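Dear Dr. V.,

Thank you for agreeing to look over these. As mentioned in my earlier message, I'm a first-year student in the group and I'm still getting used to reading structure tokens, so any feedback on how I've presented them would be very welcome. I ran two proteins. I've put each sequence directly above its structure. The first is here:
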Amino acid sequence: MVDGDEVIEVQISALEHFSYCPRQCALIHVEQTYDENLYTIRGALAHERVDSEVDSTTDGVRTVRGIPLWSDRHGLIGKADAVEMRPAGPYPVEYKSGRPHGRHAAVQLCAQALCLEEMLGQPVPHGAIYYAGSRRRYDVSIDVELRAATLAIIEGVRHQLRSQTVPAAANDARCPKCSLLQSCLPAVVAERQRMRNIQALLFTPASIGPDERGDSANA
């Protein structure tokens, strides 16, 4: 995707971040802020196990792992955990460490499908998300609704990258498990009046008494 003379590429991983919390996405991809917690470490370990596996063939279906992905049409770049090369077409599989929560991972999977369609010239109507927490694979239909939602999120991330803006903190039920909790400080930032009062104290000039003015007072 070209913005003037500049190509603004969106990382596929950023789409799940934006879908879950636009502020989280901006802190990671605009301000380059990233912290680890129990959940991100679990995710990293799950992906290490997947990445360490070799390509395989089961029941005549070849599974290719760690495929670099790109889309000139949508300005995307990233990687697929695994792609099953089925007779009906490529079938991407995304691995997650936890359990299903919302459509955030499905958006990431849909972006992978968009890339595969452009790269291989084949339709990708379905994919799957494997959740290690439940040890279950869930089929995802890459339908019109999901594609539209994914394209809207791609543009939302691209707008953040173009404008270099960071949204306000949500300070809701999503925050306690977020690895960026200490960097985001949602409970503080979301209290706008409190922040204004703190800023006022920080930038209020101190008064200077007669004895502190020095020679300039007698000039």
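The second protein is here, in the same arrangement:
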Amino acid sequence: MGASGTATLDFGVFPGGYDTSVAVTGQTGIAAGSLVEAWIRPVGTADHTADEHMLEPIKVIAGNIVAGTGFTIYGFNTHPVPAPVDRVPDAWQQRHTSATAVQWTQMSPRQDLPPGPIVTEPVIPKIYGLFTVAWVWN
């Protein structure tokens, strides 16, 4: 016979973190081969509304089963966002002499970048606060 319940993922106070986990204990009937599932449950917490639970790109995985004891729920942000990077675009460096490129790369960040698009790279932002997670195992 399985069980179900809820837990709270705590990413910490602002600015928060990239990932977190919570141990679910007291599951005396769980076996090493049990299947465990977890997901974000849209129930408000002190930090976030139910709507924010639905919109935040948190991936939730249940694992690390300990027979007769419980399991761990892991949560982490999966949404990379483009963010400006303080460096000269490689294409710009290739079009100019190496001496000129060295001058640009030795400048402090954001000082008169060469013409053209700002270089962006994916950045994983931090998540803060408490999120409700539902779980079930068989």
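From my reading of the second output: Residues 81-122 form one domain. Strands lie at 3-10, 19-24, 36-40, 58-66, 70-77, 81-84, 120-123, 130-137. Does that match how you would interpret it?

Kind regards,
E.
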